[in-house]
Design goal:
There is one protein chain. The protein has about 350 residues and is α/β, with parallel strands linked by helices. The protein folds into two domains: about 240 residues, TIM Barrel; about 90 residues, Up-down Bundle (Chorismate Mutase Domain, subunit A). Helix content is about 50%, strand content about 10%. It has 13 helices and eight strands. An eight-stranded parallel β-barrel has the order 1-2-3-4-5-6-7-8, surrounded by five helices. Helix 5 packs parallel to helix 6, helix 11 packs across helix 13 and helix 12 packs antiparallel against helix 13. The longest helix is centred in the C-terminal third of the chain and has 42 residues. The structure holds phosphoenolpyruvate and manganese (II) ion (MN). The site of phosphoenolpyruvate has 10 residues, from helix 4.
Length: about 350
């Protein structure tokens, strides 16, 4: 079956985290196709579990179940492959739509082994981002698959592991998939809000966010009875929950031909350009003051970094931001960056060899 990610406003892949039984696979496929909004069925066959001794997927015996679903519902089936044997087994069951999981993408040896077995195979491959926020590693895996001649490739954004706890199971770090799009504008990107969120109540907002950022599709986990799911039970939606979510999502237009709107946009952007130029000029003026400070510190042999001053800058700027109804964390982050450049400039001056 031909997979054309860009033929739809939003290419939707849905299905269980893991294929658990023939009935579960067929019932899920039947219920999610009822919405007519799902373009492919997903299911994990071999599961990369963090700890051994937990359910590691049904393995080869799940392949006939998926083949049956693919044929019965005319729905392409996609599975995760992590080893060459997975690809070989899947192809025997007419499954040629694969994704490379986050743990595998992180290992160039494994990706290369998979790429070798995909050489000359008529297939579609989606590459999930690696677990940690390393864009180059993600790009590297895509390049390895491309290099063996696979033509139909997409990326899957499933969020990134961070050591600090936050609302998400895997932090979206949206700037990373955006940077991927900047570097590879033709590459379709599918968002996997299920693995980003880790809990079903957050999935809608993340999915809508992904579409608003211009992502090309979604991969969402759905299980006929999430409470008894053998993996990822907290993040799987029932098929009716999935259908409701898909019905509520708004797929917006990339642009419009409306001349009034376009003129308004141009006008506002001209004003924004002026402000941005002022910001750059102000940053330059600020750095010139920093250079003066550095000259003084150099003379008196004083360190570039002054902890109290740094803490005070973040605190006061954060408060000023708050007063202006700006996001305090954003303002703090901005000044962290400005201060970092200030320290870099000062250290350069402090260590300059005298003429
Ligand atoms: C999955 O899709 O079920 C999966 C294991 O995903 P990831 O590789 O993103 O953790
Ligand atoms: Mn899962």
């Amino acid at each position: 079956m031909k997979i054309d990610f860009l033929a739809h406003n939003c290419y939707v892949i849905a299905g269980p985290c893991s294929a658990e039984s023939k009935e579960q696979v067929l019932q899920t496929a039947e219920q999610i196709t009822a919405s007519k909004k799902v373009h492919a069925l997903r299911a994990g066959v071999w599961k990369p579990r963090t700890r051994p001794g937990t359910f590691e997927g049904s393995g080869d015996k799940a392949l006939p179940w998926l083949q049956e679903a693919q044929e019965k519902f005319k729905l392409p089936v996609t599975i995760e492959v992590a080893q060459p044997e997975h690809v070989e087994a899947a192809l025997k069951h007419n499954i040629n739509f694969f994704w490379i999981g986050a743990r595998t993408t992180a290992n160039p040896f494994s990706v290369q082994e998979l790429a070798e077995v995909l050489k000359g195979v008529d297939c579609t491959v989606m590459v999930k981002n690696p677990i940690h926020p390393d864009l180059q590693l993600w790009i590297g895996a895509i390049e390895r698959v491309k290099a063996v001649g696979v033509k139909n490739i997409a990326a899957i954004h499933r969020g990134f592991h961070t050591s600090t706890k936050n609302t998400f199971r895997n932090t979206p770090m949206w700037q990373i998939p955006i940077e991927l799009k900047v570097q590879f504008p033709e590459l379709p990107i599918i968002c996997d809000p299920s693995h980003i969120c880790g809990r079903r109540d957050l999935i809608f907002d993340v999915a809508q966010n992904a579409l608003d950022l211009g992502m090309n599709g979604l991969m969402i986990e759905s299980h006929i009875n999430p409470d008894v799911a053998l993996s990822d039970k907290n993040q799987q939606l029932t098929p009716s929950g999935l259908n409701e979510l898909l019905g509520n999502l708004q797929v917006k237009e990339k642009s419009t031909a409306n001349p009034v709107f376009n003129q308004q946009l141009t006008n506002i952007r001209t004003d924004i350009d002026k402000i941005d130029e002022e910001i750059v000029n102000l940053i330059k003026a600020r750095l010139q003051l920093v250079e003066k400070i550095a000259d003084e510190k150099r003379e008196k042999h004083v360190t570039a970094f002054q902890l109290e001053r740094y803490i005070n800058i973040l605190k006061t700027r954060g408060e000023w931001g708050n007063k202006q109804s700006l996001n305090k964390e954003f303002v703090e982050k901005l000044f962290q960056l400005i201060h970092e450049e200030s320290i870099r400039t000062q250290i350069e001056i402090l260590n300059k060899k005298s003429a």
